[in-house]
Amino acid sequence: MKLKKLIKASGLSEDNVTENPEIAEIQPDSRKIMPGALFVAVRGTAMDGHDYIENAIEKGAVAVVCEEIPEKTQGKIVFVAVKDSAEALGLLLATWYGHPSDKLVLVGVTGTNGKTTIATLLYELFRKLGHKAGLISTVCNYIDTQAIPTIYTTPDPVSLHALLAKMVEAGCEYAFMEVSSHAVDQKRISGLSFDGGIFTNLTRDHLDYHKTVENYLKAKKTFFDTLPPTAFALTNIDNKTGLVMLQNTKAEKRTYSLHALADFKGKILASHFDGTELIINGREVVVRFVGRFNAYNLLAVYGAAVILGKEPEEVLVRLSSLQPVSGRFETIPSPLGYTAIVDYAHTPDALANVLNSIKEVLNGKGHIITVVGAGGNRDKGKRPIMAMEAVRRSNLVILTSDNPRFEEPGDILKDMLNGLSPSEKKQTLCIEDRTQAIRTATQLAKKGDVILVAGKGHEDYQEIKGVKYPFDDREKLRACFDVSQQ
């Protein structure tokens, strides 16, 4: 595509574009530049693309989009000056790939917890309803039935637009995606046309990046502020920030709740480790999901499907057949009569939700042993809160290593212990080796007890000093079960 046509079609100004070279690709990473590329210099959190303009030119870029044109490279190449390079990148990519989000019913899910479950269940539900659909999530991306490995919750702009274009090519009608606060703040979703947005909840997370809860909230809210009038905005009004998300949106406002009057109202009738009995908008349904937090997730899925025109009765029938998402309250029965649960809970609120759900089902008839750690090189402030939430809702807590990354596991455990009183520390063990921690939990558990292994969920690795070593909590538990039977 010619540069001027690309610039004009993307809604950017071509006033100062004097030359009109043929563009072979759009690339924001100078290391990946091929001859004929348009390099977009984006200011990132760690690096500034403007510092790599010369590198891009040397590698064969024929034009550069940037916020500031460097003096020493003027005259060497065609420059396009924009106010915001990150936003311009998304607009350019949307044009380049033929605006794929316009050809899909695209729904974004944002919030601290529940994004993966809601997006995945919507994808599975709509496929059960006979539609081809795509999924962009933390666990895995899908182009209908084709699995695409994922790295980030929300992919980089180039990968994201390319993925959506492949969905269109494969005949997908719908796409459901997790929208992280990082993606909104970094404008990775620029150029996308959303037909709906879902808000789950907001609790402390990612403060290593956003610095304050207010900034974190603002990033989530920005997603809803930019939805068009033709879209819907579905929010959880039982969360104190639920209605905040709707304050400035132009989208159609819809709500879901377990406690208040809402468009989509739910009530839990009974909970078991193999499922929950619910009433949704006056209709009873039995689902294979456990816990109050999952009741919220299912309400959001039901609400979104009905808003998108699906028959309520048919949606409920399909909901009853859906399976829990990998690593989200995944139940693994032990042959010795206790139950193990693996969950991705890696925030204080998520951990509290899972433990509360276990307590509701147990109803005082068994003990809870919780194995939990905290990730390295992330928000340190949540570590003592994680430990506190675990101890207050468990009979025994084993603090252990999660993904220490470049930190020392022992230092992370010390930070967690700082949240506990002397008496709380007495019901806490510190076992740095995660395998040994899980093994110890299985040795201590008795018939009727529950072991919660939290923090990693679907992850099949442990990240230490920049290396990912194979590690799957589910496999470790099953190995312990096998040993216990010998």
Please write out the topology:
Blueprint (H helix, E strand, L loop, with lengths): L2 H7 L15 E3 L9 E4 L12 H6 L4 E4 L11 E4 L3 H12 L8 E6 L4 H14 L4 E4 L4 E3 L2 E3 L8 H13 L4 E5 L2 H5 L10 E4 L7 H4 L2 H13 L6 E5 L15 E6 L6 E9 L2 E6 L2 E5 L4 H16 L4 H8 L10 E4 L5 E5 L4 H15 L5 E5 L10 H10 L3 E4 L9 H9 L4 H4 L2 E3 L3 H11 L5 E5 L6 E4 L2 E4 L2 H13 L1
Parallel strand pairs: 1-2, 2-3, 3-4, 5-9, 5-10, 6-9, 10-11, 11-12, 12-13, 17-21, 18-19, 18-21, 19-20
Antiparallel strand pairs: 6-7, 7-8, 13-14, 14-15, 16-17, 22-23
Structure description:
This protein has 486 residues and is an alpha/beta fold. It contains 16 helices and 23 strands. The protein has an eleven-stranded mixed sheet, sandwiched between helices. Strand 22 and strand 23 form a beta hairpin. Helix 4 crosses helix 9, helix 12 crosses helix 13 and helix 15 crosses helix 16. The longest helix is centred in the middle third of the chain and has 16 residues. The relative contact order is 0.08.
Please name the defining characteristics of this protein.
486 residues; alpha/beta; eleven-stranded mixed β-sheet; six-stranded mixed β-sheet; globular
